Amino acid sequence: MFSTLPLKIKFLTIVKSVVNIHEFQELMKDLYLEKDLKRGKERTMLKLMEEVGELAEAVLLEDEEKVSEEMSDIIAWVFSIANLYDINLSNAFKEKYNQVCPKCNESPCICNSI
Ligand SMILES: [Zn+2]
């Protein structure tokens, strides 16, 4: 569905999503920052790795519901780590993926790797 949208609408959709990324990061901060600070960066990173393992298992089992759940958990833990480093992930994302592939500077990407 997304790939059939005209480029301008696709870009506007992406910009809107990036705004929502910041809102989501703020939500994660409100919900978990205190616990994240107590746990610390290293143990929070381990939590993320644990969720990546669970996603791998769900993918191998082709359990789509579990894949969806685990991806949500992974994103939540990434935001926890971003909050511990006081990184604005919305800005970081916009800087790195500024409408083109950061490696080849093209859209769509023309890098040889798949
Ligand atoms: Zn590329």
Give an overview of the whole structure.
By secondary structure, this protein is mostly helical. It has a single domain, classed as MazG-like (Helix Hairpins). Helices cover 72% and strands 0% of the residues. The chain is built from four helices and no strands. It is globular and about 45 Å long. The relative contact order is 0.12. The site of zinc ion (ZN) has 7 residues, from loops.
Summarize the SSE layout with pairings:
Elements (H helix, E strand, L loop, with lengths): L6 H33 L1 H20 L3 H21 L4 H8 L18
Helix pairs in contact: 1-3, 1-4, 2-3
Brief write-up:
The protein has about 110 residues and is mostly helical.
Describe the structure using short key phrases.
globular, 4 helices, mainly alpha, 114 residues, Helix Hairpins, single chain, binds zinc ion, 0% strand
The count of β-strands is 0
End-to-end separation in angstroms reads: 21 Å
Q: Examine the secondary-structure arrangement and name the CATH architecture.
A: Orthogonal Bundle
The ligands bound in this entry are:
zinc ion
Helix percent reads over 70%
